[in-house]
Amino acid sequence: MFPFSVTQQPRLKSQRQATAPIHAGSGYELISFDAEKLNVFAAEVYYCEPHWHSAPELICILSGEFSVTLGHATSLVTAGSMLYINPDEIHSLEARSPHSQLLTIQFAPNLFDEIHPAPQMDYALNASQADRSVDRQIRNSVLALVEHLVDAQPSFTRIALAYQLLGALAAAGENQADRQQMTVRKKDQQWVKYGIEYINQHFDDELNLTTIAENAGASYHHFSRTFKKISGYNFKEYLTMIRINKAKQLLKDTNIPITDISYACGFSGHKQLIFAFNKYCRMTPTEFRKNYLTAINSAAEMQIMTDFRCLPLDQQIVKRLQSFNSPSHEAILPKVPFIRVIMKIIIAI
């Protein structure tokens, strides 16, 4: 399971080659659950570009601080914070302090049906807020689920714990009377998704926001404001970030000259690529390639050359979660509709 989206490697083209949509990547992240009903992973993350997926997920901040853009707003979240992300909701994050780590729980879409749909809500708990009873119930459910995975207990119990957590989340959502004020217009979300997909597929072309806005059927100014609000980046920032990510792939995996890489990734020349790398990576493309080759045999150094580093799901994660809980962190099974379908799911399996 890849915890974050994987995009197609760019192909090379000459400076004079006519631009054309040759890439199949998009902002939609396809998540594979195989035989499991959920994916649970911990990672040290540097940034995750705007994306969306059909699986709802719960993010728990383990350490450090992140800037998270979700739906309509950007906020800072610190260790102990929790954030629920609805299916197909655009989100991105970026670490604001060294060694910022998180735990993510992604729920398989087949956990839900027409009678018991995935919770649709705006649930966010900042570490600075006092925990309510519903918040403690969510923390306890997360802890119970992770302990179960670390101890490799039977999968039937895992399904029950997944529904227990979903039930706790649903209960917390019912208590948020103002959540309608937090909802982003669906049309705005669709506009931004279109923009992200278009940029991801045509990043090596000469792009401008006017063309994308017109193709999306929106005005330039409204599309510009909406793209920034929902993705967390303005058009030029996002386009440059995508081009740099593509350049990193070529710098790491090939010996192609820097000038050719700059044209392949949509830059007008190698000077523009160098400028972008100095601004966003604080090093030149040549330094990045050299540092990567030096870091290949060193796990400690390798993490600075990647956007995220997966962490083992072990007792250290359990202890970190326990530190966020109240003294009494015994999980209590919530009496909510999700629990009534647990036995039906188990029997069906």
How would you sum up this structure in a few lines?
The chain is α+β, with helices and mostly antiparallel strands and 349 residues long.
Task: Explain what this protein looks like in three dimensions.
The protein is α+β, with helices and mostly antiparallel strands and 349 residues long. It folds into three domains: 180 residues, Jelly Rolls; 50 residues; 61 residues, Homeodomain-like (Arc Repressor Mutant, subunit A, Orthogonal Bundle). Helix content is 41%, strand content 15%. It contains twelve helices and ten strands. The strands form two sheets. A six-stranded antiparallel sheet has the order 9-6-3-8-1-10, covered by helices on one side. Strand 4 and strand 5 form a beta hairpin. Helix 1 runs antiparallel to helix 2. The protein is globular. It starts with 37 loop residues before the first strand and ends with a helix. 35% of the residues are buried.
Name the descriptors.
349 residues, alpha+beta, Jelly Rolls, Arc Repressor Mutant, subunit A, 3 domains, six-stranded antiparallel β-sheet, four-stranded antiparallel β-sheet, 10 strands, 41% helix, 15% strand, globular, disordered N terminus, disordered C terminus
